[in-house]
C-alpha cells in the first residue's frame, strides 16, 4: 500500500494516555512468549474499517479483520470469512457461504445480517470513507438462510472481488448504536471488535500497538502469541533498531543498503518489487492545468539519477501506474528521458519567458511550484531536492517544503489552497488495474473528506470513458486493451509525474518461519512462527 493513501487524514486525535483494550480470555502465553516486532512510521489515524488513510493503518487493520476473501502471495483468491463463493453467468450476482464457526472478537457469531449491514455502512454518505470503490455498484445484498449472503450488482463490475469482496465486514450490533459523527470521530478505536486472528490489547500513542490472539478466531490457529507494531517515524532509527535485533522484520532504507550485509548473520534478505510507485502530483491550478507544462516538467525530472544516486538501484523507473512486467502493464509505454533542453523549449513555445532571478514568467505571473513531502521522509526530501534543482535549471522556482503528512493531506494543507503546488509521495494501487478513483473526474477531491484520490484535479473525458469501460468488460483480454490505452493516455497527458516503482530490501529474522513476500503480498499471519 501507499506510504500515504492520500485524501482524508486524521479525522480523530489520538488520546494522550495508553489505550487499553479489554481482552477476552487471551492466552497466558502472550505476555511471556517472544513477540514478533515490526515498525510503522506513524500512528494509525484510524482503525475503523474504510476510514483509515495512512499506510500505517494497513498492518494493524489486517490483524483485526477478516474479509470475505483475500489475495494470497501467489495472486490467487483464497477463502477467509467465506468458505466458498459463486458468480452468475451474467456477472450480476455473487453468492458467498460464510464459515459457520465465524465469530466476532466479543464472542458473538458473524451472521449474514452483518454483511448486509456492512453494505449500508459503506454506502452511508455521512461517514467519511477514504476508499469504498465498488460498493456503489451494489444494487442489493440479502441474507440467504443462516450462512449465505448474495450480492446483486447494478451492472457487471470486473473488480468486484478486489474491491467489495475483499473489504472488511463490520459487526452490526457494534456499529448500529453509533451515529455517523461518532464513527467519524473514532468511537470504534477505543474498543475495536473484529473477526480477524488478533485483538488489540494495548495502544500507546507514539510508541506501539500490542496484539494478542483473538480467542474466538475461527480460522487456522495462529502460532505467534504476541505481535507488536512499534511507531518509529525516522527510517534511520528504525534501521538501527533492526541492526540491534529489536525488530523481527524491517525494510532497509535506500541510504543504508550498503550496510545490509551487516545483518546477514541474523537475518535473511529478500528484495521484492513492491506494488508501490513514487510520484509527483501536480495539482492542476494555474499553469499546471496546461498539459504542455506538465509534459515539460516530466522531461525535466531526472528519474534515472534518483534511482541510481539516491535509491542505489533499489527501484525501477516508472512510466505509468501498472506494475512492471505484470499482465496489465503496457511494455511499450516508457518513461520520458531526462531532457531539460526539450523541457525548456516546450515552455518557451508555450509563451514563457525568463524574467527576474532567471525564473520563467507568463502574463506577468511567476512559474512557482513548491514541492511538498513528509518531514520525516528523508529519502523523499532528498528526491524533492534533486527535482527542485532540475526544475530550477529550466526556470521553474520549486522550493522544497516539508510538513507532517496530516497537514499535507489535511483540509488546511497544499491540496486545497487553490495554488500551484506539487506533492511528492508514494501510492500503492496494488496489483489490480482499476484506477478510476485516481484519474476519473468524478473522484476529484475538493476537501479532506471527499471520497476518491484524484488529488491532482485531473479531468479528461477520454480517461473518464476508459476507466468506466475497464471495470465493466467481462473479458480479461478486452480489459487489458483498455488499460493499455489508459497508460498511453497517462503518458501523453501527464496527470501525475511517475518517478519509480520501489524495490524493498527486507530483512527477515532467521527466527521467523513461514514468511514469504512477493509483489502480491505476504503469506497469511497464521503461517508464521517464531523459534
TrEMBL record:
Pfam entry (one): SBP_bac_5
Keywords: Signal
Signal peptide location: 1-30
PROSITE patterns documented for this protein: PROKAR_LIPOPROTEIN
Keyword DNA damage set for record: no
Record GO cellular component, one term: ATP-binding cassette (ABC) transporter complex
Signal keyword on record: yes
Stretches assigned to coiled coil: none
GO molecular function: peptide transmembrane transporter activity
A Gene Ontology BP annotation from the UniProt entry: peptide transport
Every Solute-binding protein family domain range: 77-436
Domain of life: Bacteria
This protein's name: Peptide ABC transporter substrate-binding protein
Amino acid at each position: 500500500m501507499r506510504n500515504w493513501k492520500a485524501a482524508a487524514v486524521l479525522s480523530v486525535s489520538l488520546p494522550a494516555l495508553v489505550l487499553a483494550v479489554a481482552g477476552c480470555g487471551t492466552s497466558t502465553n502472550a505476555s511471556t512468549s517472544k513477540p514478533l516486532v515490526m515498525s510503522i512510521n506513524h500512528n494509525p489515524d484510524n482503525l475503523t474499517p474504510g476510514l483509515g488513510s495512512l499506510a500505517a493503518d494497513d498492518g494493524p487493520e489486517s490483524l483485526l479483520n477478516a474479509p470475505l476473501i483475500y489475495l494470497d502471495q501467489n495472486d490467487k483468491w483464497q477463502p477467509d470469512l467465506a468458505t466458498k463463493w459463486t458468480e452468475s453467468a451474467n456477472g450480476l450476482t455473487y453468492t458467498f457461504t460464510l464459515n459457520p464457526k465465524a465469530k466476532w472478537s466479543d464472542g458473538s457469531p458473524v451472521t449474514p445480517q452483518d454483511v448486509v449491514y456492512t453494505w449500508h455502512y459503506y454506502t452511508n454518505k455521512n461517514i467519511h470513507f477514504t476508499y469504498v470503490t465498488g460498493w456503489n455498484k451494489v444494487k442489493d445484498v440479502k441474507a440467504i438462510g443462516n450462512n449465505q449472503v448474495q450480492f446483486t450488482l447494478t451492472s457487471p463490475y470486473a473488480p468486484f472481488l478486489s474491491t467489495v469482496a475483499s473489504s472488511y465486514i463490520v459487526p452490526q450490533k457494534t456499529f448500529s448504536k453509533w451515529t455517523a459523527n461518532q464513527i467519524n470521530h473514532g468511537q470504534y478505536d477505543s474498543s475495536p471488535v473484529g473477526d480477524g486472528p488478533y485483538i488489540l490489547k494495548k495502544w500507546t500513542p507514539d510508541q506501539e500497538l500490542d496484539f494478542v490472539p483473538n480467542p474466538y478466531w475461527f480460522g487456522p490457529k495462529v502460532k505467534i502469541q504476541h505481535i507488536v507494531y512499534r511507531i518509529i517515524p525516522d527510517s534511520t532509527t528504525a534501521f538501527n533498531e533492526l541492526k540491534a535485533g529489536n525488530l523481527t522484520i524491517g525494510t532497509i532504507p535506500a541510504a543504508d543498503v550498503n550496510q545490509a550485509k551487516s545483518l546477514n548473520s541474523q537475518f535473511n534478505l529478500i528484495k521484492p518489487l513492491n506494488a508501490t510507485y513514487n510520484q509527483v502530483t501536480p495539482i492542476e491550478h494555474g499553469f499546471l492545468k496546461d498539459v504542455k507544462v506538465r509534459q515539460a516538467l516530466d522531461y525535466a525530472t531526472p528519474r534515472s539519477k534518483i534511482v541510481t544516486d539516491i535509491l542505489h538501484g533499489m527501484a525501477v523507473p516508472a512510466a505509468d501506474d501498472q506494475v512492471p512486467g505484470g499482465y496489465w502493464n503496457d511494455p511499450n509505454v516508457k518513461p520520458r528521458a531526462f531532457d531539460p533542453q526539450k523541457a525548456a523549449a516546450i515552455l518557451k513555445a508555450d509563451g514563457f519567458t525568463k524574467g527576474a532571478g532567471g525564473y520563467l514568467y507568463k502574463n506577468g505571473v511567476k512559474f512557482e511550484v513548491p514541492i511538498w513531502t513528509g518531514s520525516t521522509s528523508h529519502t523523499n526530501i532528498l528526491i524533492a531536492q534533486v527535482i527542485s534543482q532540475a526544475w530550477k535549471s529550466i526556470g521553474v522556482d520549486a522550493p522544497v517544503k516539508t510538513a507532517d503528512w496530516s497537514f499535507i493531506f489535511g483540509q488546511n494543507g497544499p491540496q486545497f489552497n487553490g495554488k500551484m503546488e506539487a506533492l511528492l509521495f508514494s501510492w500503492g494501487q496494488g496489483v489490480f488495474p482499476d484506477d478510476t478513483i485516481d484519474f476519473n473526474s468524478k473522484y476529484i477531491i475538493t476537501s479532506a473528506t471527499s471520497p476518491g484520490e484524484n488529488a491532482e484535479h485531473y479531468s479528461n473525458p477520454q480517461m473518464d470513458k476508459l476507466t468506466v469501460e475497464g471495470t465493466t468488460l467481462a473479458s480479461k483480454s478486452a480489459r487489458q486493451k483498455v488499460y493499455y490505452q489508459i497508460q498511453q493516455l497517462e503518458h501523453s497527458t501527464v496527470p501525475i509525474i511517475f518517478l519509480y516503482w520501489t524495490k524493498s530490501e527486507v530483512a527477515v529474522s532467521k527466527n521467523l518461519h513461514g514468511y514469504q513476500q512477493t509483489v502480491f503480498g505476504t503469506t497469511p499471519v497464521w503461517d508464521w512462527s517464531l523459534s
